[in-house]
């Protein structure tokens, strides 16, 4: 009979704690102990992830495999990979929080190809840095919208509820996955308040 790996998707339980840092710390089994470390804090959704290595901009931090797997339902812990598809990370990447000035990109090459899902350094990262990514780069509608507390005085967008509510000019400043770009283009095309010229101007921003 096969036994479960301590860090396999079947045994990773971070997403089952509803953001409770104390409970999560008791259940935690690190998945990437040489790359990242989860810092658990009291309260709900207060834990975060730090880097244990230096990474250069554009460098692969880690693929999502073999931990990530398809999710049957959307939740606070899932990552959107396509128009209607979502995955559970099942790894310490779960604790990579949102920032409006992120240093990590979650890259979804193909919604059905697990080998194309990965975390990449969006800027140079030093050992000890808190790792963050831009939630709307993967999420069209957030399952749990929230008021951002990233602290970026020049970038913070305030309310984060997914890419659907972000104007194209702002969205164009970020790395955004193809499924989000497609949904935003469809939103622009369907907007009856925009003239044809205005639609084209907005679409050009998303090239």
Which secondary structure elements does this structure contain, and how are they paired or packed?
Blueprint: H1 21-27, E1 36-39, E2 48-51, E3 60-63, E4 69-70, E5 78-80, E6 86-88, E7 97-98, E8 104-108, E9 117-121, E10 132-133, E11 146-147, E12 159-160, H2 168-171, H3 178-190, H4 196-205
Based on CA inertia axes, which overall geometry fits?
globular
User: Per CATH, which architecture?
Assistant: Beta Complex
Low-pLDDT segments, ≥5 res: 1-8
Q: How many E strands? A: 12
Count of discrete structural domains: 1
What is the CATH class name? Answer: Mainly Beta
- Portion in strands: 15-25%
Order of helices and strands: HEEEEEEEEEEEEHHH
Let me know the largest β-sheet.
3 strands, antiparallel
CATH homologous superfamily placement: SET domain
| Helical coverage, percent range | 10-25%
**What is the residue-averaged pLDDT?**
90
User: How far is the N terminus from the C terminus?
Assistant: 51 Å
The spatial strand order of the largest sheet comes to 3-9-8
What's the CATH topology name?
Beta-clip-like
User: Radius of gyration from the CA trace?
Assistant: 17 Å
InterPro entries: Flavunoidine_N-MTase (IPR053201), SET_dom (IPR001214), SET_dom_sf (IPR046341)
Protein name: SET domain-containing protein
Overview of the structural elements:
InterPro entries: Flavunoidine_N-MTase (IPR053201), SET_dom (IPR001214), SET_dom_sf (IPR046341). Residues 91-135 form the SET domain. This is SET domain-containing protein. The chain contains 4 helices and 12 strands, in the order αββββββββββββααα. Strand 1 (36-39) and strand 2 form a beta hairpin. The protein has helices at residues 21-27, 168-171, 178-190, 196-205; strands at 36-39, 48-51, 60-63, 69-70, 78-80, 86-88, 97-98, 104-108, 117-121, 132-133, 146-147, 159-160. The strands form 5 sheets. It has a 3-stranded antiparallel β-sheet, with no helix packed on it. Strands 4-6-5 form a 3-stranded antiparallel β-sheet, with no helix packed on it. A two-stranded antiparallel ribbon has the order 1-2. It is an alpha+beta fold and 207 residues long. Helices cover 16% and strands 18% of the residues. The termini are far apart. It has a single domain, classed as Beta-clip-like, CATH 2.170.270.10.
